């Protein structure tokens, strides 16, 4: 039995362009594992460097995270609370910053083993996913976080003074931001299901009643607060994303129908 598998031997770990032509070269199993080791090494290195850079700049990042909480004074309720919270801030920020490079390395590793059509599909989907993730973070930071915090501040302003633990606030804001970013991945999931012919665009549109109910539940689950305004905003965003994704799948289905019709002529 041959110990070789078909695989493109990379010219470098960080090539300047991606070649979509099918490669005819072969790469031994040991070389394949060596490339995996090298890409994992560079990915881990990028993560470590990103975390260190974020740790050096952690005060700036903390100020950015505190921006939505206008008028709130943060306290340290335990020895080392701010220190350990800063480590968490730097770690999550480092993961976020290094994730595009890590995803890029993963794509370069699996790309040669894909078919031509798969290669042409994965790059746009990955770029769209990253863009939607960033948009989700921005949307959560600029709109949902201020709305949720404003509700909590005003709700008990006549009874209690708003003094918060920074660590608890950080956990709250991180869950909120990442929940919003994950919700923004819904169109990507829909497009993948459409490309795999699991669900058609017409089916996605036909179940709109269940989608509205599901968006309400998702808005309540993904939102770390109990205020209705934040949950309504999140549910509305889920609906917009869902029907936007359904529209894209409808276009994909229409394109397939046209190709099938032209092939029969």
Automatic annotation (TrEMBL):
Signal peptide: none annotated. One of its GO terms (biological process) is protein transport by the Tat complex. It is a multi-pass membrane protein. GO terms for molecular function: proton motive force dependent protein transmembrane transporter activity. Its main location: membrane. The chain crosses the membrane at residues 40-62, 82-111, 123-149, 169-195, 207-226, 232-252. Keywords: Membrane, Plastid, Transmembrane, Transmembrane helix. GO terms for cellular component: TAT protein transport complex. It is found in: Membrane. The keyword Mitochondrion does not apply. PANTHER family: SEC-INDEPENDENT PROTEIN TRANSLOCASE PROTEIN TATC, SEC-INDEPENDENT PROTEIN TRANSLOCASE PROTEIN TATC, CHLOROPLASTIC-RELATED. Belongs to the TatC family. This is Sec-independent translocase component C. It comes from Chroomonas placoidea.
